[in-house]
Amino acid sequence: MGVVIQLKIPSKQEKPSQTQPKKTLLSPGSAPPIIIPAISEVDVFKSFQPVLPHIQLLWELVITNEPIVVMAPSPTICSETVQALVSMLSPLKYTSDYRPYFTIHDSEFKEYTTKTQAPPSVVLGVTNPFFAKTLQHWPHIIRIGDMGPVGKWLIRFYLQPSL
């Protein structure tokens, strides 16, 4: 017939570690419940395919809270890559700030694009080509996807080493 999904949305006062899953009795022959940690799961293998040779370096950058910019051709690729970077620390929790899709209209735009101070410890996902110029002072930039000569997206990976 269909599938019934039972979920509890925590209130603002609840911390993630406070909520315990409710134990339910299963009837014989029924499938066990599936616990989904997030609304949408990111396919980390698909997201990391273009950057697989550099996966250890990326892990080191994420675990040490280095500022990282992900530049991608579409919001989907951009946000999935940022989510994959953050989730690669599992079972540890990523505690710094991350923005899967950052735009010029965000309130922290001036703070993140200023060259007078060091970039904050954040993982930013951007698609606007304007950011290629404005965020060029960031130490770690991942560029995924350039327009190819035949009009198809080529997946390339550039990681600027920190100086």
Can I get a quick summary?
The chain is an alpha/beta fold. The chain has helices at residues 44-48, 55-63, 75-87, 109-113, 130-134, and strands spanning 68-71, 97-99, 122-126, 140-143, 146-147, 153-154.
Describe the structure.
The chain has helices spanning 44-48, 55-63, 75-87, 109-113, 130-134; strands at 68-71, 97-99, 122-126, 140-143, 146-147, 153-154. It is an alpha/beta fold. The strands form two sheets. A four-stranded parallel beta sheet has the order 2-3-1-4, with helices on one face. Strands 5-6 form a two-stranded antiparallel ribbon. The model is unreliable at 147-157 (pLDDT under 50).
Strand content: 5-15%
- Compute the number of strand runs: 6
Average per-residue pLDDT, rounded, comes to 78
* Whole-angstrom Rg: 19 Å
Q: Which strands sit side by side, in order, in the main sheet? A: 2-3-1-4
**Uncertain stretches:** 147-157
- The ordered H/E elements are HHEHEHEHEEE
Helix content: 10-25%
Terminal Cα span? 59 Å
Task: Give me the secondary-structure category.
Answer: alpha/beta
Instruction: Outline the biggest β-sheet.
Output: 4 strands, parallel
Give the helix tally.
Answer: 5
Considering the chains and any ligands shown, give keywords for the structure.
163 residues, 5 helices, 23% helix, 4-stranded parallel β-sheet
Please outline the helices and strands.
Elements: H1 44-48, H2 55-63, E1 68-71, H3 75-87, E2 97-99, H4 109-113, E3 122-126, H5 130-134, E4 140-143, E5 146-147, E6 153-154
